[in-house]
Amino acid sequence: MKKKLVLWVAFAAVAFGAQAQKKNFSYKFYGQVRTDLFYNSRSNSETVDGLFYMYPKDVAPDARGEDLNAKPDGNFYTLYSRLGVDVAGPMLGKAKTSAKLEVDFRGSGTTYSLVRIRHAYFNFDWGKSALRVGQYWHPLYGDVAPEILNLNMGAPYQPFSRAPQVRYRYTSKHFVFTAAAVWQMQYLSVGPASNKAGETSTAKSQNYIKNSCVPEFYAGMDYKNPNLLLGAGVHVSSVTPRVQSETSGGVYKVSERVTGVSGEAHLKYTRDRLMIAAKSVLSTNLTQTSTVGGYGVKSVDPQTGEQEYAPLRVSHTWVNVMYGKTFRGGVFAGYLKNLGASDKVANLIGTGTDLDQLNTLGAELTYNRPNWKFGVEYTWTGAWYGDNNAKGRIVDTHLVKNNRVVFTALFQF
Q1: How far is CA 84 from the centre of its chain?
Q2: DSSP state of 67
Q3: Is the bond preceding residue 192 a cis peptide, omega within 30 degrees?
Q4: Taking the domains of the chain in order of start, what are their residue ranges?
Q5: What is the CATH number assigned to the segment(s) 2-412?
Q6: Which label site among 25, 88, 93, 378 has the fewest CB atoms less than 10 Å from its CB?
């Protein structure tokens, strides 16, 4: 309650200050009230009590052999309502300055209906080059994302994360170069839950990148014209799973690291009422971007318990086609495949490490008026589960399915 009160006082103070309009500053306030009603035919891997939907859970037999996850669920939320302000500031040397602060009420972790920072950054613009510092969309989310009603925005096929970063962009005619150093705050890597020897449970934590002392790095190049955006990028991450181990001989300080290189390619074509977008990602240990993957243990020091790891590789691809204006409809298709590790591994750590592949097919229709959107979306998702072989790939698979329907009403101001 105190956090909400502080937020509203802060917004009131900013609004009052805007009336006076500080010299060389301008403000643009905006926001939305959003409601989401959803239904699933099966229990799913998800966050925010089902609003952020991922994929159907595997079969979980009870004492009689009946599947505990074969049950429907649904709910109604307004958590993705938001408030924001864009600020244009005075010149700093030859640079135009600006800033954004945007919050919603999604909360974090398992605590919902609380204020959460979505975007918080300042920007310097010198014309051809620009520098952005603060929390913004992860570079792998980028400028190409599917246009769908589900709040996962295509995850786990589409990397989804907002993260603190320092991002530089250089624009020359039709080409844009982007480079970024990225840290983690709300969307976190998955790692060992404790330092006990042989521990196989997992948890999300800032400690894995914090102890690494190395941020994520991204570099990409885009080609842009009025109708087409085409580009590709490379991402490198390096995290530290543990800083100490516990064996029968005692506790040891260890030096462990998992480094992964991921690549992505994307395109977006728009013309009149038509939009075609697609992205393909080959990822290694990108669990901090709301997708599946992780790593496994490939060797253990018999004395200290220090472990060496090999990351799992996952292929993600999605395509989205939309058409219309007042009435706008379209389809979305996604495919994900677990490619395993390059070495033999054990004790897999990550999310969805028992998934072989995912398929999603969806269709939506929205009715759009100035400031308003009403829509319905149907999504079918199939998940193939199985057992891991020596390299973390999946064998002896079986299929589970989920049917999801989402109704959304959105008022933007």
Answers
A1: 20
A2: B
A3: no
A4: 2-412
A5: 2.40.160.10
A6: 93
